[in-house]
């Protein structure tokens, strides 16, 4: 297949992947995606009004999304947002507590019940993300998960709202997760006027 045809197919498949996103609650009950995104935006605003913050989590490409979104939500969305991707924090926590708890300890220290945690994982199986979300839930945080690859992934069973993309490619998963988060942010900024 030539690049022109591949590009058309790739971008068409990406749009279908994002538009076909599925939303569920922790029990696996399917929910309306747009209502879930609106509910999450409302939680972002409620958290901010209560002095809370949005905490983004991810590994690898998802860590890049977490860093990017935490900055954009803070700078452009005027919402307190952060992630735990500092090199010293990551390497020190991994050394001292083990990589499965590299995000659990910072969540335990910095998260509060009025915070929102956004957990991004293409596989939904990353132990450090699953552990951190379990800790966030224990603390009473509202949790949004963004996953792909397998519909039965464990992270998809932990969030208050779980958004799943039916794809097995990292490109579509990562671009899809970023697109959803950007759409939510842009709606927060521009709202009905756009």
UniProtKB/TrEMBL annotation:
Residues 44-194 form the SIS domain. This is SIS domain-containing protein. GO terms for biological process: carbohydrate derivative metabolic process. It comes from the Bacteria. One of its GO terms (molecular function) is carbohydrate derivative binding. InterPro entries: GmhA/DiaA, SIS_dom, SIS_dom_sf, SIS_GmhA/DiaA_subfam.
């Amino acid at each position: 297949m030539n690049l022109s045809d591949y590009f058309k197919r790739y971008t068409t498949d990406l749009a279908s992947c994002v538009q076909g996103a599925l939303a569920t609650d922790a029990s696996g009950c399917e929910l309306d995606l747009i209502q879930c995104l609106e509910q999450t935006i409302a939680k972002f605003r409620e958290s901010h009004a209560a002095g809370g913050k949005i905490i983004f989590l991810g590994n690898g490409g998802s860590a890049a999304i977490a860093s990017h979104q935490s900055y954009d939500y803070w700078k452009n969305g005027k919402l307190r947002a952060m992630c735990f991707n500092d090199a010293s924090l990551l390497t020190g926590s991994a050394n001292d507590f083990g990589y499965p708890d590299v995000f659990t300890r910072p969540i335990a220290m910095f998260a509060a019940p009025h915070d929102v945690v956004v957990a991004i994982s293409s596989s939904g199986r990353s132990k450090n993300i699953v552990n951190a979300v379990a800790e966030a839930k224990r603390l009473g945080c509202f949790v949004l998960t963004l996953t792909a690859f397998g519909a039965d992934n464990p992270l998809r069973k932990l969030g208050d709202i779980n958004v799943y993309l039916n794809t097995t490619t990292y490109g579509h998963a990562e671009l899809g997760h970023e697109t959803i988060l950007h759409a939510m942010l842009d709606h927060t900024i521009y709202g009905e006027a756009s």
